[in-house]
Amino acid sequence: MSSISSIDTSLYSGLIESMQATSGRNSSANAARPTYDSSDAETAQVDLSNYYSDIKPGDLLRTVGDNVAQSAEALDNAMVSAIQNGYTVQDAINIKLAETAYKANAYVMKSTIDTFELTI
């Protein structure tokens, strides 16, 4: 297993696509937006009294921080490997994947810190 594939990306499903869809030059002016029909929505009661009782902010911040550190290490390793291999096409792909993972992890870290600053 390579260092790139060992990063847990299950927390970030769809994050990379949403970042690419809204970034300046890659976004289209007429991007398709999902539509929702509220007439079919059920109005069931939901008990939110213990919604925040199981949150452990220290664990979340440590996990997100570990993911940022792992993705930074993976990016470093991909660049070192490219230098050692003479920068092949596969090296370019590995660097791009590692860079995208690092950006996604950094974005989640920033969002997590901003969220906890607002709630504290």
Concise overview:
The chain has 120 residues and is mainly alpha-helical. It is 57% helix and 0% strand. It is elongated.
Please describe what this structure looks like.
With 120 residues, the chain is mostly helical. The chain contains 3 helices and no strands. The longest helix is centred in the C-terminal third of the chain and has 31 residues, at 89-119. The protein is elongated, with a radius of gyration of 19 Å. The N and C termini lie far apart (39 Å).
Structural class: mainly alpha
Give the overall pLDDT as a whole number. 75
Report the helical percentage.
55-70%
Tally of individual helices? 3
The largest pleated sheet is described as:
none
| Cα separation of the termini | 39 Å
Tally the beta strands: 0
Percent of residues in beta strands: under 5%
Radius of gyration: 19 Å
Low-confidence stretches: none
The topology string of helices and strands comes to: HHH
The geometry reads as: elongated
Secondary structure layout plus pairing:
Elements: H1 15-22, H2 57-85, H3 89-119
Helix pairs in contact: 2-3
Keywords summarizing the entry:
mainly alpha, 57% helix, 0% strand
